[in-house]
Specification:
6-stranded mixed beta sheet, Lyase 2-enoyl-coa Hydratase, Chain  A, domain 2, binds ligand LHQ
Length: about 260
Amino acid sequence: MSDQSVEFIVEESVATIALNNPETLNALTDEMLEGLTAAVKQAEKSQSVRAIVLTGRGRGFCSGQNLKTFAGEPGERDIGQHLDTYYHPLIQRLANLEKPTIAMVNGVAAGAGMSLALACDYRVAAEGARFSQAFVRIGLVPDSGSSYFLPRLIGYSRALEMASTGMMVDDKTALAWGLINRLVPAESLADETYSLAKTLAFGPPLALGMIKREMAYGLSHNLTEALVREKDFQIRAAQTQDHREAIKSFFAKTPPVFEGR
Ligand code: LHQ
């Protein structure tokens, strides 16, 4: 494994978190899971980060749990404890981040590697990217949030088929099913992803955080509850300096500068 199995780089308000163990298609070891969680925490905390890109080095995005480092006889390793220690805090943190997250899917995303992509807000994929709920192929069930995110993204029947067969879903099917937001030529992947990341990074941070929470809330509440939540957030958004700035800029015909206040 490389010295730095998870890279963390911040440029122009965008943090890039890159899994860096290309020989295994970025299969997740304990060390990588710790590195990933630390990087997400850092991105969350840093005032200079306003959008986050998660990607993999080499030809894979992430092949899920490293099966070499989690080998053994059935029952020998405590899989529940492994999930509680590593995956659950990571997935919760990623999904609940108030900053926008983009999975830049450069290649295959399998098992918990696919769960990671699903826990991001957006997925921009390169041609040739593929997706598998690989768990069933090794006699396991979806974990790390796949059973939550996948049916919400692509619908129950498709999600169930993916989970029950471990089928490999190709790039065009992923786009048609709404599993990914954008499908782009491999050579444009970085440009397209960072263009979206910068659009989000220059948006009003407080409103963006509330939009994310509002949409998630809307998925699991009724209309009356959603209207109440919208009103609550709108009252808060209307009180921000960023809202005032945007109104002023609109009439001045200049681009607004949002500061997250
Ligand atoms: C790998 C891996 C890998 C190690 C490729 N590990 N080396 C489970 C257990 C415990 C706790 C918590 O949660 C989980 C959740 C999970 O994530 S379970 C699902 C784990 N992932 C998988 O079962 C996927 C296994 N990998 C594959 O099926 C294939 O490698 C895919 C479809 C991802 C890619 O296929 P190819 O493009 O044909 O590549 P490859 O199979 O030739 O892999 C390249 C190398 O990467 C190869 O090593 P080698 O030394 O032969 O070059 C693989 O052994 C290694 N690798 N995935 N998860």
